[in-house]
Amino acid sequence: MLVSEIKGRIPGKVFDILEKEIKELRPAQEKAIQAGLLDGKSLLVCTPTASGKTLIAELAAAKQIIEKHAKTIYLVPLKALASEKYKDFKKRYGSIMKIALSIGDFDSADSYLADYDLIIATSEKLDSLIRHHTPWLSSVGCVVVDEVHLLNDPGRGPTLEILLTMLRQLLKNVQIIALSATIGNAEELAAWLEASLVVDDWRPVKLHKGVYLRGEVEFD
Question: Which of 41, 125, 196, 208 has the maximum number of C-beta atoms within 10 A of its C-beta?
Answer without folding.
Answer: 125
